[in-house]
Amino acid sequence: QVQLVESGGGLVQAGGSLRLSCVVSGRTISTLNMAWFRQAPGKEREFVAAIFSSTGSTSYADSMKGRFTISRDITKSTVYLQMMSLKPQDTAVYYCKAHSVWGQGTQVTVSS
Predict the structure, then answer these.
(1) Based on CB atoms within 10 Å of each CB, which residue in 41, 44, 62, 70 is the most buried?
(2) Rounded Cα distance, 79 and 35, in Å
(3) How far, rounded to the nearest angstrom, does the alpha carbon of residue 49 sit from its chain's CA centroid?
(4) How far apart are CA 59 and CA 17, in angstroms?
């Protein structure tokens, strides 16, 4: 059974950076399509970025392109989300997802 544990969230000023981590257990991440989503207060959960199992190719939501980078370290069974040039509107709970399995989320708060 796949389990996901996110970490790395916190409070950062606008313009700052954070790196989120998602540690995966139960299956090798090279066999999983992995994604990050986020949910801001009062809003629906939205797609942020994905990395695909066999090729390692990536996909991003348009508003995150150029600022966010998804990557993986197969040896550490970890998927990362590097976030740069953060804006207050990036404030949300960020979730890691592997197929139909969700992590518990990690809070990111960007102050203006």
Answers:
(1) 70
(2) 9
(3) 7
(4) 20
